[in-house]
């Protein structure tokens, strides 16, 4: 059984609503420190973010649609790193995955990877709810070939839905042990979070972190 502190260290405590103010971000960081989460994830226009020592700062690129030229995503990622981001969650051109254009998808991810070399962590958001299994598998392999560190299920903003156990299992089967697996989108209960971990998730993107963690013992 995962303990509260163990699960907390898997969480990117997230605030990506368009109306979020600097005060809201300050409150997010304060709550993340109280909960002991691994990181905070905020919109790029809210960077830089002051955090306690040891807390990682993540941001998003091409968010939420992914319908942005790869050069723009790369430039956005580079600027975010300049502004203090240590992890970049990029949204792919989802249509490339839908059409199984995995070579072009790899090129897009590689452009972002080149713009923010290691030790910056690159997570690739696939928007799995609108992809078939072949698209999910192919996109995961493209992310791996492009040098990404994680594959991630969802933005949480797509009408098709967020994370599913099936998608996480498939992602884990495809690249688990080599890439991290981040489940995000619609995870609002302890039960759902633990189901994602059992399916193979190594990181969770949550805006309801306090609610999820209160269902666990230390």
Automatic annotation (TrEMBL):
UniProt keywords, alphabetically: Cytoplasm, Lyase, Schiff base
Entry's EC annotation: 4.1.2.4
One GO MF term: deoxyribose-phosphate aldolase activity
Annotated localization: Cytoplasm
Job of this protein: Catalyzes a reversible aldol reaction between acetaldehyde and D-glyceraldehyde 3-phosphate to generate 2-deoxy-D-ribose 5-phosphate.
Family listed: Belongs to the DeoC/FbaB aldolase family. DeoC type 1 subfamily.
Official protein name in the record: Deoxyribose-phosphate aldolase
Organism the protein comes from: Corynebacterium mendelii
Gene: deoC
């Amino acid at each position: 059984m995962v303990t509260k502190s163990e699960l907390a260290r898997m969480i990117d405590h997230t605030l990506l609503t368009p109306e979020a103010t600097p005060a809201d971000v300050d409150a997010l960081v304060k709550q993340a420190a109280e909960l002991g989460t691994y990181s905070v994830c905020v919109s790029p226009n809210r960077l830089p973010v002051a955090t306690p020592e040891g807390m990682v700062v993540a941001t998003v690129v091409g968010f939420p649609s992914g319908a942005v030229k790869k050069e723009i995503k790369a430039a956005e990622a580079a600027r975010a790193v300049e502004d203090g981001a240590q992890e970049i969650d990029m949204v792919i051109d989802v249509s490339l995955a839908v059409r199984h254009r995995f070579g072009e998808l790899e090129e897009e991810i590689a452009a972002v990877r080149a713009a923010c070399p290691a030790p910056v962590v690159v997570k690739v958001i696939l928007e799995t709810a609108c992809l078939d299994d072949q698209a999910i598998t192919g996109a995961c392999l493209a992310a791996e070939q492009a040098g990404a560190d994680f594959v991630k299920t969802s933005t949480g903003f797509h009408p098709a839905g967020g994370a599913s156990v099936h998608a996480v299992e498939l992602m884990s089967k495809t690249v688990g042990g080599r890439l991290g697996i981040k489940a995000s989108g619609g995870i609002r209960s302890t039960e759902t979070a633990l189901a994602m971990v059992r399916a193979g998730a190594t990181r969770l993107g949550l805006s309801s972190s306090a609610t999820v963690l209160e269902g666990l013992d230390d």
